[in-house]
C-alpha cells in the first residue's frame, strides 16, 4: 500500500482471481441462521451511533445492510461459517468489511473496517422491532425560535431590504 500525503488519492493493493465463485471461504457449516433485524450500535459509549442491521441468510451465504440516520451501507454480501460472520462490499469509492461472532441472538466482538485506516467496534441484538430514531428528533431550533419558516421569512425580508435599491420614477402610460 502506497499513500501519497500530497494528494487525496490513495493507492491500495488489489488482487482478483477469475472464475472464483466465493468472496469468503466457508470451511464450516453455519452454527446459526442470523436472518432478521438487529439493533446495532457502532462505536464505544458514549459516542455510539445506533443503526439497524437487516440480514438474510440462505445456507452460508449472507446478504444485508446497516440502516443509519444518514443512509445505509448499501449492498453487503458475505458468509456465515461456524460462529463467524463476514460481510463486505466495494463500490469503487468505499471498501467495507464487517466481522462478528454469533452468540445466541446476538452478534458480538464486531469490527467494521472502512477504507484503509478506519476500524470501529459494533455489536447487534436480534430485534424484529429495531428502528432508527425519529428523524425529527435529530435536529432542533435554537432557543428563542418558534419555527424555522418564520425565521427564514424574516431573513429573506432583511436581505431583500438590503439588496433592493430605492428607485423613484414616473410611469408614462400611452393610449393607442
Description of the structure:
A hairpin with a 2-residue loop joins strand 9 and strand 10 (106-114). The strands form 2 sheets. This protein has an 8-stranded antiparallel β-barrel with strand order 3-4-5-7-8-9-10-11. Strands 1-2 form a two-stranded antiparallel sheet. The protein has one domain (2-126): Quinohemoprotein amine dehydrogenase alpha subunit, domain 2 (Lipocalin, Beta Barrel). The protein is 9% helix and 40% strand. The longest helix is centred in the C-terminal third of the chain and has 16 residues, at 148-163. The chain is globular and about 65 Å long. It is mainly beta and 176 residues long. It contains 1 helix and 11 strands, in the order E-E-E-E-E-E-E-E-E-E-E-H.
The helix/strand series, from N terminus to C terminus, equals EEEEEEEEEEEH
Low-confidence stretches: 172-176
Report the count of strand segments: 11
Classify the fold: give the CATH topology. Lipocalin
Give the structural class: mainly beta
Helix content: under 10%
Outline, from the CA principal axes? globular
CA-to-CA gap between the ends? Answer: 81 Å
Q: What count of domains describes the coordinates?
A: 1
Amino acid at each position: 500500500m502506497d499513500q501519497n500525503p500530497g494528494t487525496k488519492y490513495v493507492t491500495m493493493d488489489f488482487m482478483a482471481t477469475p472464475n472464483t465463485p466465493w468472496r469468503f471461504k466457508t470451511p464450516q457449516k453455519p452454527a446459526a441462521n442470523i436472518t432478521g433485524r438487529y439493533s446495532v450500535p457502532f462505536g464505544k459509549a458514549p459516542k455510539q451511533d445506533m443503526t439497524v442491521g437487516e440480514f438474510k441468510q440462505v445456507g452460508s451465504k449472507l446478504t444485508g445492510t446497516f440502516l443509519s440516520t444518514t443512509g445505509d451501507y448499501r449492498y453487503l454480501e458475505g458468509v456465515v461459517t461456524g460462529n463467524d460472520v463476514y460481510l463486505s462490499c466495494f463500490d469503487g469509492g468505499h471498501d467495507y468489511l464487517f466481522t462478528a461472532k454469533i452468540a445466541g441472538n446476538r452478534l458480538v466482538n464486531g469490527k467494521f473496517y472502512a477504507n484503509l485506516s478506519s476500524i470501529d467496534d459494533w455489536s447487534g441484538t436480534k430485534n424484529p422491532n429495531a428502528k432508527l430514531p425519529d428523524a425529527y428528533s435529530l435536529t432542533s431550533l435554537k432557543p428563542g425560535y418558534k419555527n424555522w419558516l418564520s425565521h427564514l421569512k424574516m431573513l429573506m425580508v432583511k436581505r431583500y431590504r438590503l439588496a433592493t435599491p430605492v428607485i423613484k420614477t414616473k410611469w408614462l402610460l400611452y393610449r393607442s
